[in-house]
Every structure is written in structure tokens, then in C-alpha cells.
User: Which sequence fits this backbone?
């Protein structure tokens, strides 16, 4: 094989010229004639029975073609919206239809759709629709929802409890008996609103006499959407095509089959015209799922030398008004809460609860940020209690390099990693000892600097088919097709569906190295179910570990065939053929080579092929690795909290991440930058808030703050590279690592800064008001 | 009810009868057919719809189309000269200043104005200058680097002269 040239190279992205010139097409940019616009009338009530929907005035409005309610559409739903197992096979959940039939369970739930000749006409008519509700008491809080006498959302389930399950191993009683120190702490994972800058949008075009449906959707999962459109609408899957065009960010919020994908398709089938729906931001904050919203209670058993013996965490998850498709994916947090550390016992409990709020589902990290926040706060709580430096507590408890592959108490096996290498590098980058001296000096001057660490591990590359089938109900693998054309150029089709991750660039790099075809001659296609056999799409930092490796394997298969053809053309034995940089030659005689272009021509001039060989130069791969991949890293955040205002300033942010082989380091760093910023958003700014009646009080970007450029520093990044042993490229995943690591690093820094005030924990987001109050609660006196 | 609007967008004259309530961004996208200008919110926070209007950067969701009557507008589509990218577009490409690309047109239009007002900004001045434009992908790190790189190219007396704007 050729010496790797492209893997490891920070080449510029091939996606960018169209995007920087405004010539990429997101759903709302697609040209289409005879369009019908859909407006969704949404519930203004958090919990109510629908007594009637008065549509006659709206039907008379200009441009209105049809108005449809849940009762009208119910007969057309072949199935409710999908709900996936996701770690809780026995959970209780209600049927969830794309539109409310007789009851609403959260503000923003669809109750009617208006179809009209323009968006303005549809919205105007929507205002003329009168929905008569019988209001019911609402409940938005997890603990109140399962208290006696709470209003029950779904009567058929008997209560608001979806599940209450244990994840335990080891002798927790013995661990607590052995402990010198026990600590109890409640950690709140506040509700987050994902805010991809492009809201969702769908364009559905049903061709009546062909019985064919094409749906363009701003989605992360076109292949899943295709299957479910076929099931719910009762159309042959072979007649459904789903396209994810340019997608303006996802972060998990575009990972499920959404009501509007079904509703536009149904409307198009009824009207025989293409139907478009574009979410506005006001809708987006209510109609697109939210993330997190969990309470984690933890009890810690530790020794006074800093050894953590065991933990007893309970995760209380707010599912919202229904169980979303991957709504219990966050329970993954329980499975990986052991983090980078050894311990003797783990006694976990996961509880899921319905409330009158927007359903929650995956949001960047989905379970892993929560788990990492838990275990990284545990390390700092133990450090505070024992008086041992947080760095030393981590070192004491680390899984060691010689323990790898390490199996956790709950039975997951880490693929590789020496967690001291990233930590040592990060400590050197900040000069940790000097920083601690500086902190002590500043405290004398009334300045409150804090240093926060996070030494995370992450599970990603979802995943091997067997464990993902068992745990989530879906077999996950990577898919690729590599097809070399007559002229020696290549098309690569992938099963992942990028929305900013740069797969068109990085996967071309992978194929280029194997085939010796220049990157500019390799086109990477994705996001269209009409091309390629099937895909498992993009989420969970899975794409490169799965589909990226599938590209490598397909390219290797193509190279193998190219060798056979070259051997035939050169009248040599296949075993003597060397393939290098797109040329095949007999070992020792590179001057008499045939190029991949010549091989490609022969592959289609089939009479020139060896006897019995089929034409074409193409390979397909479904890649099912032997394990998940487990990236790791050390992040250090340095903050200063202003005693006058309570405002936090991030002075430095250092991240050392090990995601195995880096195909395009520039793209890897970009993923980290954005991830870190999003995790900082949770720590400092973001919080989705409902009032007691279930009205969303943070319903716009005026109230729900995401980080701006001036809120953030430049980030200092470095890498170590520990190739994964479970895939041929040695890649792991990096899409979520920044978010997973940064929230605990920032919060540990803030708690550290407030140590002189006796503060042991701060609830997120760490707003200036909250911090000021903590610093002044005893009239400003210190501990 | 309809009112006549005449604007020049990227050097081309457009004249239409529009509803008075039509936002400028919807005029640019749906009437003039220039879909590079995006809509990311409805509260003028995100800046995805930023365009240049008579030399000022404006969020085109904050104006009615009728208010733009008689103005010269430059959108993202008006920056490149043929296939030659504007230095800001080139810098965003070179420095990986974008991922999903949805905020990028507005970000570049805001950065253009920023550099016209302050050709040699500090990092902090760039960060403060971008407060009206939200990005969820990049953490702004490489956007700042892109603008710094473009500033070097666009600075008066720099070797590579920036192509003049179309407007």
C-alpha cells in the first residue's frame, strides 16, 4: 500500500466554496414550483383535552387549500411515531402521533395544519383557527410529576413513571462500609435547547400516479426517516426517497423522525402538490426536542487517601410530554458513569418521568456529558473533602495503561488509552504548579481565580451491531460504496449524513490514500437514500469510526481487484504486483506500471479482463467493528470570578484530546472548538425554563442565551494519538468530546474559584447573579 | 395595498410590487431569488440574514422591503468576482471558519463591515464586533482567525489587493 499521504493532512474542506458563496442549498433554498406551504397550529396549552377545532373562518381565508386536524389525519397513520428501546426495554410509553388527536401534552404540540398558497396566507389563516381546550392541571417538574396526586399525562399508563431500573455491579454495601468518607450531592443537568442555527424544514413531493414520495428534510437521519415514512404512510419503501440537502447544524436535535416529516408528506399526498414547511425560531424552541433535563443524585464512598471505592448515582430523566424516538438514550450516561476510573462497586438507578414539556432526546453527547459531569464532579468533591489536589485524586483512581483493555463494572470494555498522557500534557501546557501559586497570590488580592479539570473518557463509534441491537434496538454499522469510473475518477457513497462535519473532504482523503487517486478526482456523496444501499446516518460521534473505515475497506477491496486486473494486463502473477500511488507494477520494475486509470478502462472493456472476472471496479462494505471506540482527554479551564459582579471570565482553556488517528487535524480541531463552546454554554448561559403552567419562558434567542464570540476565549488545543485497535484506520470519534469535557472543566473551575467562600457546588448555569449571591450570602465573609 | 420597491442587489436592478409587511430578507430570498442570505431566528439575534445596504451592514429581517426602496444592496452572492473569492470568503475557507455553513453568509457580511470600519482589529475587537452574529458550530475560534487572516490581505498596501466589492 502507498505510504499514507492524505490521512493526517489538514487539507481545506471541499464543501466550503459553495457555502462561503451562499450557493449551497438548504431545504428552504430548494427551487420548486407549484408549492403549497404548511403552517402548523400548535397547542398553547401544556395539558388539555381538545373539545373542538373551529376551522370554518380559516377555510374562507385567501389562498387556503385545506385545513386538517388530528381527527382528519388519524386514519392515515399506519403507525405512531417510532420509539426505540435505548437501554430501557420495559419502559412504559404512550402512542405518539404526529398531531394531537384528542389531548395535548406540551405547549407547541401540533393540533392542526393549514395548507395555503403562500406562507403568509397559511399563517394568517392559522390565526383564524379556534381550538377549544378543556385545561387540565400541568406538571413540569420531575419530582412533582411522580409525587402522589400529580396530574397524570397519559391515563392509560396509570402514572407519569415510565421506568425505574437498576444498573448495579460490585458490593456497594461493602464499599460504603470500607469508606472513611461519604459524600452526598445533587447535580442538576438543566434543560437545554439545541438551537442549530438552521431551524428544521421539510419539503415533501408526492407524485400521485407514480405513487412515489420524495422528502427533503433538514435531518441527521435520512435513512431512518425513509423507513418510517414508508411504515407510517403505508408506501412501499422502494417508492420513498429522503434527501438531507445542506443541513445547518444538528447537535442531536435533528436525529429523530419528526411529526412535520409525516405531515408534509400526508398533505402532499392529499393535494397532489409539493408541500413545504419551514420552522421559525419561535416554533423551533418548542417543536424541536430539548436536551438534558435530569437530576443526578449521587452518594460517594471514598478513602481519605482519595481512593473512590464506589458510587451510588440516581438519574432522574424528564422525558417531556411523550417518549421521543431516542428519548431514553440519555440512560447511556448511567452505563459510562464510571469514567476513566477504577472502583469496586457501582449502584446506579435510572428513572424516567413524563411531564408537560417539550420531549427531550439526544443533544450533543446524549448521556455522556451527564455521566462525565457526574464523575468529574465526584473527583473534585473527593479532592475537596480529603484536601488532596484534584490532579492527584484523578491519578490515584485512573484506569492504568496496563489495565487496557479494561472492563468496567457494568461490563463495557475500553479499547485503549493511557489517561496520564493527556493529563500530563495539559498540566505542562498550563504550568499547573505555577497556576496554583498564581491563584494563591490572587486570592490575597481579593481576586478569585479557579482551575478546573476534566479527564474524560467517551464511548462513541456506535457501534458494533450486536451490542447496539441489544441495547438500543437498532443494529449500527458503517456503510460505503467505492466506485471507480471509466476515466479513473471515483465516487464514494457513504451511509453517514454530515451536517457540518466535512465528510466530503475527510472520506476522500481516506479513499485517495488507498487508491492513489487524487482527492479532487473523488466525489463523496451522501444524504440521499436514492444512492447507495442503506446508511445508519450521523450522530454519537460515529461517522469516521464506522463509515470512514467502511470507505477504507471498500477502497482496499477495489485495490485488490485492481491488482488482479493489473497482473493480467502485465501478464504477471498477482502475488508479484505492488500497488503504490495509483500505479500497479511487478515488484522491482516500477517503470513498467499500469495506472489506476488504465486498470479502470480495462475494467469496463470487459474482454480485456481475466477469464471469469466481472466488469466494473466497485466495492460495497457494511463495516461492523468488534467494539466501540473510546476517546479520552484532559481539559483544563482557568476562570476568574469577579467578586463585584459575579461574572465569570475564562482566562484560558486548554484541551488535550486523543481520538486516535486524525484524518484531517484541522477538521478535528474545529469539532473540538464548537463542542467546547457548547459545553461552556451549558456551564455559563443556557437554561430552558418552564413556568408551573407549562409555558416556556425561554422561548426565543432573547431569553435563551447561547454563547457569542465575545463570551469565549481562543482555545489552546493539543493532541496525543492512540490508534483504536478496533478499526483499520485507528480512528475514534471527536464530535462530542468538547461538549462532554468542557462543562465539568468550567464548573470545577468556578467551584474552585469560590472555595474561599465555602462553596462546594454551583448549580448550572453559573450566572453572575447566582455566583454573586454565593459570594455574598454571609455578607461577603469568607469561610 | 401593494407598494412598489426598486432596489439594486449585487449590481442588478430589481423592481416589484410587494406587500408592505414583506421583510427585506424575504424579498431578497423569495422575490429576488437570492437564497444565500439565511433566516435563523425571528428576533434579530442570530445575524444569519446580514447584508450590506448603502454601505452599512444590516440584519435584513429588521427592515421591511419597502424601507429599502432606492437602496444599493450587496448580499453574499455579490462578493466573489466570477470564480475569484472575496478575501473574506477565501479566509473563511483557508482557516476552516465554517462547518455547517448556515451562519456563514451573515458572518462574512458582518465581518466585511467590521474590517471596513477597523482594518486592523485586535482579537477582542473582532469578538465584540461579531456579537450580533451567532454560530453554533465553530465556537468562533476559527471565525476570528479567518477575519484576522482576511484583515492582513485586505489591509491597505497589502500585496494581494482585494477585489473591489460589486456594489
Assistant:
Amino acid at each position: 500500500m502507498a505510504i499514507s499521504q492524505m490521512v493526517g493532512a489538514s487539507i481545506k474542506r471541499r464543501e466550503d466554496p459553495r457555502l462561503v458563496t451562499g450557493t449551497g442549498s438548504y431545504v428552504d433554498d430548494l427551487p420548486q414550483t407549484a408549492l403549497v406551504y404548511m403552517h402548523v397550529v400548535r397547542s398553547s396549552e401544556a395539558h388539555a383535552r381538545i373539545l373542538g377545532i373551529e376551522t370554518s373562518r380559516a377555510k374562507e381565508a385567501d389562498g387556503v387549500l385545506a385545513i386538517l386536524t388530528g381527527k382528519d389525519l388519524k386514519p392515515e397513520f399506519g403507525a405512531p411515531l417510532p420509539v426505540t428501546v435505548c437501554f430501557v426495554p420495559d419502559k412504559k410509553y404512550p402512542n405518539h402521533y404526529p398531531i394531537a388527536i384528542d389531548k395535548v401534552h406540551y405547549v407547541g404540540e401540533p393540533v392542526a395544519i393549514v395548507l395555503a398558497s403562500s406562507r403568509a396566507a397559511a399563517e394568517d389563516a392559522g390565526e383564524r383557527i379556534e381550538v377549544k381546550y378543556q385545561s387540565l392541571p400541568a406538571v413540569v417538574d420531575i419530582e412533582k410529576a411522580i409525587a402522589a396526586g400529580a396530574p397524570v399525562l397519559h391515563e392509560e399508563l396509570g402514572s407519569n413513571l415510565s421506568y425505574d431500573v437498576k444498573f448495579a455491579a460490585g458490593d456497594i454495601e461493602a464499599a460504603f462500609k470500607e469508606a472513611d468518607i461519604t459524600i452526598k450531592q445533587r447535580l442538576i443537568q438543566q434543560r437545554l435547547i439545541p438551537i442549530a442555527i438552521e431551524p428544521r424544514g421539510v419539503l415533501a413531493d408526492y407524485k400521485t400516479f407514480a405513487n412515489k414520495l420524495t422528502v427533503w428534510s433538514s435531518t441527521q437521519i435520512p435513512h431512518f426517516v425513509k423507513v418510517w415514512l414508508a411504515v407510517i404512510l403505508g408506501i412501499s419503501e422502494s417508492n420513498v426517497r429522503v434527501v438531507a440537502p445542506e443541513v445547518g447544524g444538528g447537535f442531536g436535535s435533528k436525529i429523530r423522525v419528526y411529526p412535520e416529516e409525516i405531515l408534509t408528506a400526508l398533505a402532499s399526498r392529499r393535494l397532489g402538490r409539493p408541500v413545504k414547511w419551514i420552522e421559525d425560531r419561535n416554533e423551533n424552541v418548542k417543536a424541536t426536542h430539548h436536551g438534558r433535563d435530569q437530576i443526578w443524585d449521587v452518594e460517594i464512598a471514598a478513602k481519605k487517601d482519595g481512593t473512590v471505592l464506589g458510587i451510588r448515582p440516581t438519574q432522574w430523566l424528564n422525558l417531556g410530554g411523550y417518549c421521543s424516538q431516542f428519548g431514553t438514550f440519555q440512560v447511556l450516561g448511567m452505563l459510562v458513569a464510571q469514567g476513566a476510573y477504577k472502583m469496586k462497586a457501582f449502584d446506579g438507578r435510572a428513572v424516567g418521568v413524563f411531564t408537560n414539556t417539550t420531549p427531550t432526546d439526544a443533544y450533543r453527547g446524549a448521556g455522556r456529558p451527564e455521566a462525565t459531569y457526574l464523575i468529574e464532579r465526584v473527583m473534585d468533591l473527593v479532592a475537596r473533602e480529603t484536601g488532596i489536589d484534584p490532579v492527584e485524586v484523578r491519578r490515584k483512581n485512573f484506569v492504568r495503561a496496563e489495565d487496557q483493555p479494561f472492563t468496567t463494572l457494568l461490563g463495557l470494555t475500553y479499547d485503549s488509552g493511557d489517561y496520564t498522557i493527556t493529563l500530563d500534557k495539559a498540566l505542562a501546557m498550563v504550568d499547573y504548579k505555577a497556576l496554583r501559586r498564581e491563584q494563591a497570590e490572587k486570592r490575597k488580592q481579593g481576586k478569585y481565580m479557579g482551575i478546573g479539570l476534566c479527564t474524560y473518557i467517551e464511548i462513541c463509534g456506535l457501534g458494533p451491531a450486536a451490542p447496539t441491537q441489544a441495547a438500543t434496538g437498532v443494529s449500527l454499522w458503517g456503510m460505503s460504496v467505492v466506485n471507480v469510473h471509466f476515466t479513473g475518477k471515483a465516487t464514494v457513497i457513504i451511509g453517514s449524513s454530515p451536517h457540518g462535519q466535512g465528510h466530503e473532504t475527510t472520506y476522500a482523503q481516506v479513499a485517495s490514500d488507498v487508491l492513489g487517486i487524487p482527492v479532487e478526482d473523488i466525489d463523496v456523496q451522501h444524504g440521499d437514500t436514492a444512492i447507495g444501499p442503506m446508511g445508519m446516518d450521523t450522530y454519537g460521534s460515529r461517522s469516521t469510526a464506522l463509515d470512514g473505515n467502511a470507505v477504507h475497506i471498500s477502497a482496499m477491496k477495489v485495490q485488490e481487484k485492481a491488482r488482479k486486473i493489473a497482473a493480467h494486463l502485465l501478464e504477471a502473477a498477482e502475488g508479484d504486483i505492488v500497488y503504490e500511488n495509483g500505479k500497479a507494477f511487478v515488484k522491482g520494475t516500477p517503470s513498467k506500471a499500469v495506472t489506476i486509470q488504465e486498470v479502470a478502462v480495462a475494467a469496463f472493456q470487459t474482454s480485456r479482463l481475466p477469464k471469469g472476472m466481472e466488469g466494473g471496479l466497485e466495492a460495497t462494505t457494511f463495516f461492523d467493528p468488534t467494539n466501540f471506540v473510546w476517546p479520552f482527554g484532559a481539559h483544563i479551564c482557568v476562570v476568574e470570578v469577579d467578586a463585584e459582579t459575579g461574572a465569570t471570565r475564562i482566562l484560558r482553556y486548554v484541551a488535550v484530546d486523543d481520538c486516535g488517528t486524525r484524518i484531517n487535524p484541522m477538521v478535528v480541531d474545529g469539532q473540538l472548538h464548537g463542542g467546547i463552546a457548547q459545553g461552556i454554554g451549558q456551564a455559563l448561559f443556557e437554561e430552558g425554563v418552564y413556568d408551573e403552567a407549562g409555558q416556556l419562558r425561554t422561548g426565543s434567542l432573547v431569553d435563551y442565551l447561547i454563547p457569542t464570540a465575545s463570551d469565549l476565549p481562543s482555545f489552546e488545543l493539543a493532541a496525543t494519538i492512540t490508534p483504536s485497535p478496533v478499526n483499520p484506520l485507528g480512528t475514534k470519534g471527536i464530535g462530542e468530546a468538547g461538549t462532554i469535557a468542557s462543562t465539568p472543566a468550567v464548573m470545577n473551575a468556578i467551584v474552585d474559584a469560590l472555595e474561599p467562600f465555602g462553596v462546594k457546588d454551583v448549580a448550572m448555569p453559573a450566572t453572575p447573579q447566582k455566583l454573586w449571591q454565593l459570594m455574598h450570602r454571609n455578607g461577603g465573609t469568607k469561610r | 395595498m401593494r407598494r412598489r420597491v426598486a432596489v439594486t442587489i449585487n449590481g442588478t436592478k430589481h423592481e416589484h410590487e410587494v406587500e408592505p409587511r414583506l421583510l427585506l430578507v424575504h424579498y431578497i430570498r423569495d422575490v429576488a431569488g437570492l437564497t444565500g442570505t439565511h433566516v435563523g431566528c425571528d428576533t434579530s439575534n442570530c445575524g444569519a440574514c446580514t447584508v450590506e445596504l448603502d454601505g452599512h451592514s444590516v440584519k435584513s429581517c429588521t427592515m421591511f422591503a419597502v424601507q429599502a426602496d432606492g437602496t444599493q444592496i450587496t448580499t453574499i452572492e455579490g462578493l466573489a468576482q466570477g470564480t475569484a473569492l472575496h478575501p473574506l470568503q477565501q479566509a473563511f475557507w483557508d482557516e476552516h471558519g465554517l462547518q455547517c455553513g448556515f451562519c456563514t453568509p451573515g458572518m462574512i457580511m458582518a465581518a466585511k463591515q467590521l474590517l471596513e470600519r477597523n482594518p486592523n482589529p485586535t482579537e477582542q475587537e473582532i469578538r465584540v464586533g461579531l456579537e450580533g452574529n451567532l454560530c453554533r458550530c465553530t465556537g468562533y475560534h476559527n471565525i476570528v482567525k479567518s477575519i484576522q487572516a482576511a484583515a492582513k490581505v485586505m489591509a491597505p498596501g497589502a500585496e494581494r489587493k482585494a477585489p473591489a466589492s460589486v456594489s
